[in-house]
Amino acid sequence: MKIALPTGQPYIAENKLVPHTRGVYSFGNINVFASTRLGLVERRLIFKQPQDVDVYPSIIQMKRYELRAMRHIAHDTGIKKMRRIGHSYEFEQIKNYVQGDDFRSINWKASSRRATLMVNQYEDERSQQVYCIVDKSRAMRMPFEGMSLMDYAINTALAISNIILKKQDKAGLLTFSDVMGATLKAERDTGQLNRILESLYREKERPGESNYELLYEAVRRLIGARSLLILFSNFESSYALERALPTLRRLSRAHLMVVVFFENTEIRKRSVEDVHTTADVYRQAVARQFLQDKREMVTRLRQYGIQAVLTKPQDLTLNTINKYLELKSRGLI
């Protein structure tokens, strides 16, 4: 900033900065170069006023999806209303029978007292443990529309943790790569969402590969009861999945495991482009084979009872919330 200072008068200079990524922004010393009007004399002044500014993940997105996902509110486009299966739910209330209610839920004693059919209404079981596990390895560095895949995973982990707590479940957090990162035991108290937020905004991608054995030991040590584990990772090849699969299978024996990974949208565009040369034909064939490999990864995971979600980065939050609501509606948690 170049400023002409009036003689003997104070002057306030303002400079607004807009951060585009989460993390800690550190501001160092303030450097001032003061010179005369003709530039014959110049002096450098240093003011030591270091300051850190915390930039958090998207709070607006978290609140938007909270309104969509809660029960008794009209479901907006994208949030699926799941049909309940079975009766593994907590009792909520007795209500008048309406056409379509399950006749097995009729409360005969209440019906005889009121001289009209009454049914028991149930709600989802509460206090289930749900952990979001975020992979911080180099596979999550891939950029998409100005954000890395890890940024998308962190925003989604925050949004779904908020919904988990609103549903009266317990939300927890794990981050890992070649070393373990943040670990938060699943809780349901009012300060848990803030603790998750404080843990997530500082996380950064690491250059190493994911150590799934390390993750397994951390889960076994930290999580005792059966829980829902939502793993945000990225498998760009069948080889990468095969290396992680033995550990994922061991985790799925003790917990309900959901693996969420990403579809490469650039490759999908390449697979449907018009071809004009032989090189274009080869590129399109490779792109289609790559997409087929991704679909086979989903099938491979489901063969071993592991839930899988293959999603575009921009649809990550929506699809993850849908999967959580589906599993809860089916009484699998």
Explain what this protein looks like in three dimensions.
The protein is an alpha/beta fold. Helix content is 36%, strand content 23%. Strand 8 (143-144) and strand 9 (147-148) form a beta hairpin. Helix 7 (265-271) crosses helix 8 (278-303). The termini are far apart. 28% of the residues are buried.
What characteristics describe this protein?
single chain, alpha/beta, Rossmann fold, two-stranded antiparallel sheet, 9 helices
Topology overview:
Elements: E1 23-27, E2 30-35, E3 42-47, E4 51-55, H1 59-69, E5 90-96, H2 108-114, E6 118-123, E7 129-135, E8 143-144, E9 147-148, H3 149-166, E10 170-176, E11 180-187, H4 192-200, H5 212-222, E12 228-232, H6 238-254, E13 256-262, H7 265-271, H8 278-303, E14 307-311, H9 316-329
Helix pairs in contact: 1-3, 3-4, 3-9, 5-6, 7-8
Spatial extent as radius of gyration: 26 Å
**Strand/helix succession:** EEEEHEHEEEEHEEHHEHEHHEH
* The named CATH superfamily of the largest domain: von Willebrand factor, type A domain
Question: What top-tier CATH class of the largest domain fits best?
Answer: Alpha Beta
Count of alpha and pi helical runs:
9
Distance between the termini: 57 Å
Largest sheet data:
6 strands, mixed
Write a concise synopsis of the structure shown.
36% of the residues lie in helices and 23% in strands.
